Amino acid sequence: MISVSHLSKRFADNEVLKDINLNIKQGEVVAIIGPSGSGKSTLLRCLNLLEKPNTGTIKIGSVALNSEHYHNKDEINLRKQSAMVFQHYNLFKNKTALENITYPLIVGQKIGKDKAKQQGLSLLERVGMLPYANQFPITLSGGQQQRIAIARALAVRPKVLLFDEPTSALDPERVHEVLQVMLQLAKEHITMIIVTHEMEFAKYVADRIIFMANGVIVEEGPAKSIIDNPQHELTQRFLRQITDEIDFEI
């Protein structure tokens, strides 16, 4: 359902993505892991053109785009295929939880206010946030804001949900409530690509794990296999570093 071919991205002289090739099936949950600076988030942002690739083609559903020559209409059509959940929520601070969800429906999809409200309330209930419909983001915890952000992403009925380290800005006690919502979405066979440092979550929820380093896909395979028995030396070293306890004396 998603196909990426020969994708590359440079920032000045720094080549962040180098000839990325990737295929994802409908309903598949793919976790992307790797050290900071490996190109994980840039790859995700290229899929919905928040970052413009230098070369390569992206196909989501029936919409394909050649990054070297495309029209504004092609860009709009590709963006409609996905929805992004950001690390820092990106909610409108001057809008309530419900308004954050209905805004893209009313403005972007020209849905009537009553119908948009009905859909918004249903989505809030789906992520366990219905009692907070009329509260503003500033009154909510990080975990609650992220659940609203997930509901907003679901509102536009995308072909794929893109998660860019959705729990990294949360207090540890709030991480679980967001991961539970994502687990439920996985059970509903919603296609998801998740950049994450939550290895246990990736192991048990993702169908497949992609390990990236230095702008390339180093290793990929079934989630449990990659976490428990990585084959590449870089993957082994990365997983060892994040699972080893820090040993120090005071």
UniProtKB/TrEMBL annotation:
Q: Where is the ABC transporter domain?
A: 2-239
Q: Which Pfam families match?
A: ABC_tran
- What Gene3D superfamilies does the record point to? P-loop containing nucleotide triphosphate hydrolases
Topology in the lipid bilayer is annotated as: Peripheral membrane protein
Which UniProt keywords are present, listed alphabetically? Answer: ATP-binding, Cell membrane, Membrane, Nucleotide-binding, Transport
Which GO CC terms are listed, alphabetically?
A: plasma membrane
* Any one GO molecular function term: ATP hydrolysis activity
The cellular location(s) given in this protein's UniProt record come to: Cell inner membrane
Q: Say where the protein is mainly found.
A: membrane
Q: Which InterPro entries does the record match to this protein?
A: AAA+_ATPase, ABC_ATPase_HisP-typ, ABC_transporter-like_ATP-bd, ABC_transporter-like_CS, MetN_ABC_transporter-like, P-loop_NTPase
Family membership, please give it: Belongs to the ABC transporter superfamily.
Give the protein's recorded name.
Amino acid ABC transporter ATP-binding protein
